[in-house]
Write a structure and sequence with these properties.
By secondary structure, the protein is α/β, with parallel strands linked by helices. The protein is 37% helix and 19% strand. Helix 1 crosses helix 7, helix 4 packs parallel to helix 5 and helix 6 packs parallel to helix 8. The longest helix is centred in the first third of the chain and has 21 residues. The structure holds nicotinamide-adenine-dinucleotide (NAD). The site of nicotinamide-adenine-dinucleotide (NAD) has 29 residues, from helix 1, strand 2, helix 4, strand 5 and strand 7.
Length: 317
Amino acid sequence: MRVLVTGAAGFIGSTTAELLLSKGHDVVAIDNLVSGRIENVPTGATFVEGDCGDFELVRSLGSFDACVHFAARIEPGESMKYPEVFFSNNVASTFRLLDALIKSGVGRFVFSSSCAVYGNQVEMPIDESRSIQPHSPYGQSKRMVEEGLNWLVSTGRLRAASMRYFNAAGGTVAHPENHRPEIHLIPIALDVADGRRDYLEIYGDDYPTPDGTCIRDYIHVCDLAEAHVLAITALEDHAELILNLGSGVGYSNREVAETVKRVTGREFEIRYTGRRPGDPAAAVASNGRAREMLGWRPERSDLEVIIADAWTAHQSI
Ligand SMILES: NC(=O)c1ccc[n+]([C@@H]2O[C@H](COP(=O)([O-])OP(=O)(O)OC[C@H]3O[C@@H](n4cnc5c(N)ncnc54)[C@H](O)[C@@H]3O)[C@@H](O)[C@H]2O)c1
């Protein structure tokens, strides 16, 4: 298949592009490098530097069997300050991309959505039938794309999968997690373990959780990549899919920090500071639908494996 991968210079996009290439697909990788790194783009992909919302550029690339759309601004905190940037980049660009792709005859679209669409839920785990109530413009931007996709699917001109990731983590030496700026707990904790930062800050230790710190569900980026490849195939039989991608297990921030210490063998200081606005106490996926619809199994998403892989990858950057 000929597959367009947007955001392919980023963490999850580059890992997925690599997997698609390894399965013999022809990959065109587009990224404007706003936060991605050119060295992430796998050898073997045809790289196009540009905005995925550039209608003429996307039209000039010809037709594709499928598009996997990772390109987005990803920081919820930043979206609270500059919502317009998120609606312009994550929503408007996505629909210009879709307009160009549909005119070029692309039939299948796999979209990087997020558990941020669920907002602050009390009951864990969260399944896909839960109410959608994003608490940030970032989460809202994902919701808006999901809803637009639903309308497009109803016309019969597109088949679409919205993949609601929980916390992507892990990494490979070829594609380490190295966001600009880094906002995720595991790579920041690895920076501290490595002496690149002085201490680890954990936001809030007074949440209604067993140890008072937030609980999150970590999913290995290699498991995410597998799910995307499976989703492209599943869209042959399903016009629309909405799937949680998480391990189904929650770990508190404190447990993650302690696991980083154990796996790296490095001791470091943890400082507990105030809660960050908008952070839900817990976010844990029910992943039964993805298991059933895709035959997917998150095989590398044990926390120790995630951190060991991330540590190996981290030492290469
Ligand atoms: N990392 C996570 O834990 C997580 C969780 C839920 C959802 N997601 C979603 O997964 C996707 C990928 O996340 P990531 O962690 O790999 O982020 P990333 O920042 O590493 O990758 C995003 C890439 O998109 C590119 N990009 C952004 N806007 C673009 C545009 N208009 N045109 C072309 N390229 C553009 C960036 O340069 C970057 O390379 C995003 O859509 C994100 O919202 C990520």
